[in-house]
Amino acid sequence: MASHAFDPTILPPAAPCPFCNIASAYASYDPSAPPAADSPVLDPENVSPLSFIVLSTPTLLAFLDILPLSRGHLLLCPRRHASKLTDVSASEAAELGAYLRILSKALVRTTGVADWNVVQNNGAAAAQVVDHVHYHLIPRPEIRASGKLRESFTMFGRGQREELDDDEAVELAARIRQNIQLVLDEEAGKGKL
Amino acid sequence: MASHAFDPTILPPAAPCPFCNIASAYASYDPSAPPAADSPVLDPENVSPLSFIVLSTPTLLAFLDILPLSRGHLLLCPRRHASKLTDVSASEAAELGAYLRILSKALVRTTGVADWNVVQNNGAAAAQVVDHVHYHLIPRPEIRASGKLRESFTMFGRGQREELDDDEAVELAARIRQNIQLVLDEEAGKGKL
């Protein structure tokens, strides 16, 4: 029975990084030719908690935030594990920057919301929760007329975030992937990408 | 006297964009060989309000926020006018992304503060104040131990921001430029940039 006794020297296994879990569950695909919405490649159940992928390249992943501040709240991260923005490579940093623009365009088209925040938190004092570097893209549907220089708003207010509805998320992610495809097609047509 | 009468059809001149003003007042320089701190190229009085430049390339500008949320609060923007992140070019977006990483490294070294936020606001509803796309880099010196999933913090709280002290700003900007130079030297040594 000794083998079942509590042994304080044995540590529990380290919690796996949730974004690395997502990265390992979703293969990359060409964002200008995304798989069909019902493809196993994009099945939300490939990982727990359910994940709703909008972008999966050899370098980057983007998916819906499971506790969105607003409809369309996205996360963009490198596939490779890195804690903070200072830990990514120069090319990952540039590619994150390039895709923030593409995702922003696709998100505005999908949601019809013209205003949004891009936020990237580094460390606990900066409200980073998942220790895998990521950018938030957060649509801001409330238009508050403001001529004021300084405006208060709560970034991560308790009670503001609601759990994602799974059926709506499947639909929303599909439309964002379609709009990413459209944006990339237009960029290619203009010779910009 | 008719010519001095109030004519409601004559609009006042459009306010010039403050970040375009800064762009036109500061020529670009090689960030891996910045000018001396007392060079006219970097004179804070080249424009009003005073500007404290930490980066000036043919494409990008970075300078101290004049109402910092914390010591070292920086702004990074494209030199060319664009309102929102969706209005920049693909190459500007990538270069912004690449320099967010470089500036983050230089800022952590300069301030000794390991945690920071990167924030980019698009539109009035998202608290964008200056209509020229820019990223904030905001050191977060308060370490608040947090095991909580959701944490409240005020992003742009009234009363949190203080005006920049000019003498301290000159010194701080010089040290950030030096650390950008060091970071770029190290990157070049590693063949990463």
From TrEMBL, chains A, B:
Q: For the motif Histidine triad motif, give the residue ranges.
A: 132-136
List, alphabetically, the PROSITE patterns matched. Answer: HIT_2
Superkingdom assignment: Eukaryota
- List, for all copies, the residue spans of the domain called HIT: 40-149
Catalytic residues of the enzyme: H134
Q: Which GO terms describe its molecular function?
A: catalytic activity
Q: Name one GO biological process term.
A: nucleotide metabolic process
Q: Which PANTHER family match?
A: HIT DOMAIN-CONTAINING PROTEIN, HIT FAMILY PROTEIN 1
Q: What is this protein called?
A: HIT domain-containing protein
